[in-house]
Write a structure and sequence with these properties.
20% helix, single chain, 184 residues, alpha+beta, 8 strands
Length: 184
């Protein structure tokens, strides 16, 4: 074996070791566990199952309310659906969402805008802020509706040392004197 071949093998082994160590230090959030942890809605499983699981356990509806979870229906590009907590209702067609695993795999976005683009104004179709566009973009997403936390027990806080979320976007509304569901 030549020195070049030995060096290449060493570099490959070192690279493999580094790729297995790095993820152990990072927290990658999926949307469902993150939504559960911040909303207090105790539903488990993939996001596309939340709407059906909420039936009879939580109130569901078409009106956004701070603290409610927006349930996105699955699509061909988003097979497992998506869930996001409404952190603030801005008006009848705009809300701020806090969610994970949307713009970047495992990343958290706080207080980013979602706009109702449905023809009837019933929140059945939305556009959501996307980091790569630094805006809403042209994609629209079907929404089942909202799952209301009501008197749901708040999830136990997770120790800070176990969470190192990658926050992609965050609007600090407290700076502007605006209260959100996360501030309660």
């Amino acid at each position: 074996m030549t020195i070049g071949a030995l060096t290449a093998r060493f570099a490959l082994v070192a690279a493999l070791c580094l790729t297995t160590i790095a993820p152990a230090n990072a927290q990658f959030w999926q949307c469902a566990p993150y939504a559960r942890s911040i909303s207090g809605i105790a539903i488990y499983g993939n996001a596309h199952t939340w709407w059906a699981q909420a039936e009879g356990r939580y109130e569901r509806g078409r009106e956004p309310v701070a603290g409610a979870v927006m349930s996105f229906a699955p699509t061909s590009r988003m097979r497992l659906g998506h869930v996001a907590m409404v952190s603030k209702v801005l008006n009848d067609r705009e809300v701020l969402l806090t969610h994970a695993n949307w713009s970047r795999r495992g990343g958290v976005e706080k207080n980013v805008i979602a706009v109702d683009v449905s023809e009837r104004g019933d929140w059945s179709r939305v556009k959501v802020w996307f980091a790569a566009n630094n805006g809403l973009g042209s994609s629209t997403y079907p929404v089942n509706g909202f799952i209301y936390a009501g008197d749901a027990p708040q999830a136990e806080p997770i120790a800070p040392q176990t969470i190192a979320p990658l926050t992609i976007a965050q609007v600090d509304l407290e700076k502007f004197g605006v209260e959100t569901a996360l501030a309660k």
